[in-house]
Amino acid sequence: TKCGKCKAVYYCCRACQQKAWRAHKPLCLRTVADKRSVADIVGLHVQLVGSFAEDEACSWIQSKVPWWRSYAEGILELVLHLECFPLAVALAAERARAGKTATPAEYLSALKHAGYKRATVRRTSEKHPECFPDVVKLLLDTILQSDQAHAEDAGQALRKLALLDTEAIPLDLLGTDERKAVVLLQKHSLVTLDDTGCAALHAVTQRVVRDWLTPKSHRQALVAALSAVLAAKLKRFDQVKPSTFFIGRRYARHTGIVAARAREWGVLPCLPGVDVGQVSRGSDTTVFDNIGSMCRQAGHFYEHVSTQPREALRMHLTTLDSFVTGQGRNHQWVAASYSDIGNVYRAQGKYDLALVQLQQSLKILIRAYGGEHGDVATMYNNIGELYQEQGNQEEAHVAFKQSLEIKIRLFGAHHPLTAFAHNNIGNLLRLQCRFAEALIQHVRALEIHKNVHGAIHPRTADSHNNLGLVWQQVGNYPNALKQHLLALDIRTKLLGHFHPDVGASYNNIGMAYDSQGDHEKALGYLEKSLDVCTQMFGYRHPQTADRYNNIGGVYRALGKYEEAFNFYQKSLVIKMQVFGQEHSLVADAKYNIGRVHENRDEMEMALALFIESHKMYFKAHGPSHKMTKSAADAVQKATVRVEQRQRETSKTQVVHQ
C-alpha cells in the first residue's frame, strides 16, 4: 500500500500504515507542501478575481469537504462571510479538509477569531500559505521577483486599487507605469479588466492589501497621490454643463471610497466633526486640500445631478473636516464648506439646520474679509433665498437688500453681479404680489445684462425668463409668452435643445399656455420639458418630478383625472425617494393628489391627504405660509362635505328602516 498523500512510502498493509502514521505525518506533510504550487493548494489554476455564485461556491466546498454535506446552512454562512471570493473559498476548503474540521460553523468561528491576520507559526514548508493574506503576498512576490517589465510597479498599483471601489475602476487614476503593471496583476488573478478598460478587485483582496500589505509609513502618501488625481479629474466637472456630467458618474463613487479609507487609516478624523487634534499631520497640508477639493466636487455632483442628498452631505462633511484639518477653522474654504452643507439641508427642507450653516459661513467670511466683499454679499443673498423658501419674506428682503447694497458699493450700479441682486429682489416681490415693483427690478437687471453681455447671452435670457414669470402671475399672458419665447430662443441658440435651462423655458411656456386655458399647447411644451429632464437627469430627479406634477395639473384642468392621478403619483414617488417623507415638496404632491380625489368626489381620501399635507406644511413653513393656509382651507371644506355626506347617508338609512 502506497501513502495516498505524498506517494513516497510503501506499506505492507493498511494496518501497518495506520500504525506508522504518527511518525510519518510530519515528513508526509512537508513532502506534499514542497511539491505544491499556490494554484495546487487552493485548487484553482485559471480562476479569475470575480465571485462564485453562492450555490456554486457551496457545491464546490461540499465536493472538497464531503463530511460537511449535511451542513448546508453552515456552508452558506461561511461562503457569505468570504464574500464568494474563489481564492478565499478554495483556501478555506483546503484547510478544512487537511485539518479535518468537523463542521463549517467550527471553521467559521476560528476564521472570525483569526480575522485576516498573517500566520506567525509555520507547521510546514514556507511555500505552503497558512492563510489568505499569505496567498495574496505570495502572488505579489511572484510578480515582483520576476524579470518582467513594470513588475516593480505592480505593488504600488495594487495598493492604489485597494483604496478605490471594487468595480469600474478607471485606470487613468494610476500612473503610466502602474497602468502597464495591471496586466501582470491580471495574469496572476489579482485583478480583472472589463471591455471598457476599467479594473475590478475583490473586496477581500482589497482588505488584505490595505490591512497587511500596505506599510503604515506609506499610507498617507498613497491617499495623497490618489486624492490629487481625483481632484484634478473632478475639477473639470461643472454642475451647469451637462457635457461634464460623465466625469461625476465616473469618479464620484471612488472619491467617497478614498475618503472613507483616509478615515480608516487616520489621515482624516474617524468621524465627521471630530476634533482635528486627533489627526497626525505634518507641515504639508496638500493631502487635506486635495481630499477636500475632490469631495466638494463629488458632493456637488451628488447634490445637483444624481440627487443623492445623503451622499452629498457625507461628501461636504468630509470636505469640511479636510479643510479644517489643513487650513484651520477661519479659512474661506471652510466657509464654502459650511455653505455647501447648508445648501444640502435647504434642499432637504431642513431650514433651521441650513440657516445655522449659512450663518456660520457668513461669520467666517466677515472675519476673513470684513463686511465689504463679494463673497459676503453672495452669502447674504443665499441666506435671503433660504428665508424666502421658508416663507419668512421680511427677513429675506433684508438679506437681499444687504447683498444689493454691498454689490453697488463694490462693483457699481451697472455690474452683472448687481443685476443678479436686482433679479433676486424682483423674484421676492413677485411672490409678495408686488408686481409693479418686481417689474422695475427685473427691467433694471435686463438693461444691465444687455449693456454688459449683449442681447444673446444666458444672463439676458434669465432676465427675460423672470419678466415672463411676473407677467404670467399678473395675468398678462401675451407678454409672458413673448418673454418666455425670447428666453427660449436665446437658450437654444447658445446651449442647444438639450440643456436644463432650455427644459425650464419649455416648462414656463407650457405653464403660461395652461394659465391662458390653451391646455393642448401647454401639454406639448411640458412634454418637451419632461423629455429634456429625463435625458439630462434621468427619472429620479426633482426637476423630473416637477415636470410630472405640471403635466398632471394640465390633465386635471382637462378633466382627465385618471391621467392626472398617474402623473401626480409619479411625482410623489420621486420626491419621497429623493427628499424623504416629511419634505414640503412631498406635501405639494399629496395636496395635488387630494385635489384629484376631490374632483372625483372621493372626499374621504381627499380629506386624508389634505390633513397629511397640512401637517407637513405646518412643520416646514409654520402657520402663516400660504400653502399651510391653503391646505387648512382644503381640510375645512372637505370636512364639511364629508360630514354632510355622512348625514345624508344616515337619513337614507333611517328612511329604509
What does the secondary structure layout of this molecule look like, with pairings?
Elements (H helix, E strand, L loop, with lengths): L13 H22 L2 H5 L11 H11 L7 H10 L4 H14 L4 H11 L17 H13 L9 H8 L14 H12 L4 E2 L5 E2 L2 H10 L3 H19 L10 H20 L21 H19 L4 H19 L4 H16 L3 H19 L4 H17 L2 H19 L4 H16 L3 H19 L4 H17 L2 H19 L4 H17 L2 H19 L4 H16 L3 H19 L4 H16 L3 H19 L4 H31 L1
Antiparallel strand pairs: 1-2
Helix pairs in contact: 3-4, 3-5, 4-6, 8-9, 11-12, 11-13, 12-13, 13-14, 14-15, 15-16, 16-17, 17-18, 18-19, 19-20, 19-21, 20-21, 21-22, 21-23, 22-23, 23-24, 24-25, 25-26, 26-27, 27-28, 28-29
Strand percentage: under 5%
Shape: globular
- Terminal Cα separation, in Å? 100 Å
Main pleated-sheet profile: 2 strands, antiparallel
Question: Quick one: how many beta strands?
Answer: 2
Question: What oligomeric state is this?
Answer: single chain
Kindly report the spatial arrangement of strands forming the biggest sheet: 1-2
Low-confidence segments: 33-49, 119-127, 271-283
